[in-house]
Each structure stands twice: as C-alpha cells, then as structure tokens.
Design goal:
Layout lengths: L1 H9 L4 H4 L4 H21 L10 H5 L1 H8 L39 E7 L5 E7 L47 E5 L2 E6 L7 H13 L5 H6 L3 E2 L5 E4 L5 H9 L3 E2 L10 E5 L6 E5 L12
C-alpha cells in the first residue's frame, strides 16, 4: 500500500520531463515518502487484528488531498498522517500515532522466471543478525527475530499483541502490462525497501532505463522531515539544491538496498536480468 500510494501521488507530475535524479524529481519523491510513511506508521498493521483503510489509501480524492500538501520548491516541516477513513465505507476508530524504531537486519531478495513464463519476486528475512540465534536442528536454517518490527509503544496499529504478525517493509513486486508480467523488483534494507522498490520502478517506467542502469542509479531514503540518506554517486549540486529547499542530508553517504530484477520484453520475448552490485548478486540463465 505504501509503494502504491507513493506511485499514485507521483502520477500527478511529469516525472520523465523533470528528469532522472534531478532536484525537482527527488524533492517530489522525498515529499511523497514523508506523506506515505506518515500514513503507514499510523494505520498499517496485521489485518487479523485491526482494520486498515486500504481503499482510502489509494482513493483518487485522498491521493489528490495528500498531493496538495506538496510545495514543489520547499520541504514541508510538519507532515502528519491524513484521514483515509473518510474514503472508506467501513469506518474505524482513529489510532493515536506512536513512534517507530528502525533496526538493522539480514534480509535477502531474489527473483526467478521459469520456461513457462511464471515469475516469482521473493523477499525473505530473519530480521536481526543471525535472527533469534536459534538454528532448526537437522535443517540448517535460522529462526527469525521479527518481533523487532513491532512498535514497542502500546496503542498503535502495529503494537505487540499475542499471535499478531509485525508490520513488515518487505515489498516483493511484479509489474504487469495488459495482464502480462513485464518486470519484477524487490530488495532487502529494512524500512528503505519500499523506497528502493519505488525508485527502481520509476527508473524503469518513467525514465526508461535499462534494468542494470535502473538498479545501479544512486538512491535516497527519507521517511520523515528533514533527514535524507543518500548514496555516494548522487550529485553534489543536486544535494545542495535540495538542502536549500529544507532537506537535511546525512553527513556521509550510505548504501541503500540491493535489488534483483528480471525484465521481460513482451514484443521479442527476450529476458533481461539485473543484479545489484551493492551486495552479492548475479544474473543466471539456464537452458
């Protein structure tokens, strides 16, 4: 939902015309991230325990409402969750916002296409390093430690409850055209996963980059005002211009995500694979 919400907000702009990784494009993306993550932190959790405004999140009127909060030349300093319940027929109580905490983790992503055209985009995680520290006897895999994905402050959509699933950032994605899969994308990276998938998806669709270039392009991440994580290849001039608009970049660059992708050319039937150089990854074809 968070990925789709950001994409729908950004549909209101001519991203291709604004240019790839320009200050104008990245500013709109950062502001969209802030809007979507505010809603995510407020409303999303295990649907076995809470109701979420899934239709409201993506309602065109709600998207327009959220988009109207974006100033194309200045960062908004006080983004709050909206009220997507206004656009739902099934109303629910509004939860009080709670703080969220990010943890380092050990997640991986891979994607596979078979000879019949079945496409899989697969993200899996054990969360923290070595997960829970417990190995399953005789099977050789670690049990996860996903409890860290809960909000530890009670009262929110993602609070700890017995038997409840913690909210995850994993975003394994397959994009379709006319009912046929055209590419897969996904990544590890904790809370940065969603925006990593967003950026590679836009690189492929809006900027029409070849898959490896779409993956290699430098990324940013920002879930709330004003801090922005960035990768070393991002232009200094772009960072300076964005800083003038109110964004605050980390002192040092960092590595964000590790995407693996398969692109299907529907006209020729050819397959193109892309593997991220940020971590171990490779492209393999077997006849």
């Amino acid at each position: 939902l968070t990925l789709l919400q950001m994409l729908k907000i950004l549909e209101g702009y001519d991203i291709n015309k604004l240019g790839h990784n320009t200050a104008d494009t990245l500013h709109l993306m950062i502001e969209s991230m802030h809007l979507a993550y505010a809603d995510r932190n407020q409303y999303l959790g295990d649907t076995d325990f809470i109701k979420i405004p899934a239709k409201g999140f993506l309602d065109d009127k709600y998207i327009a409402e959220r988009r109207s909060l974006i100033d194309p030349k200045q960062a908004a300093s006080n983004i709050k969750a909206g009220d997507p319940w206004k656009y739902e027929s099934d109303k629910a109580a509004i939860l009080e916002p709670v703080p969220t905490v990010d943890f380092p983790g050990e997640t991986t992503h891979f994607t596979v296409r078979d000879e019949w055209g079945n496409l899989v985009s697969y993200t899996t995680t054990i969360e923290d390093v070595f997960g829970s520290g417990m190995m399953v006897p005789g099977y050789g895999f670690m049990l996860n430690n996903e409890m860290t994905d809960f909000d530890f402050t009670p009262g929110g959509a993602n609070e700890v409850v017995p038997g409840k699933r913690p909210r995850s950032s994993m975003t394994p994605t397959i994009v379709f055209k006319d009912g046929k899969p055209v590419f897969s994308v996904g990544s590890p990276g904790g809370s940065t996963i969603i925006t990593t998938v967003l950026q590679v998806t836009m690189n492929l669709i809006d900027h029409k980059l070849p898959v490896q270039e779409a993956i290699d392009a430098p990324r940013i991440f920002s879930s709330s005002y004003p801090n922005v994580r960035w990768e070393a290849e991002l232009s200094k001039a772009v960072r300076e211009e964005l800083s003038q608009r109110g964004h605050k970049f980390d002192d040092q660059p960092s590595v964000i995500g590790s995407v693996q992708s398969i692109v299907v050319d529907l006209e020729t039937g050819k397959l193109y694979g892309g593997a991220d150089k940020r971590r171990e990854g490779t492209v393999i074809g077997v006849l």
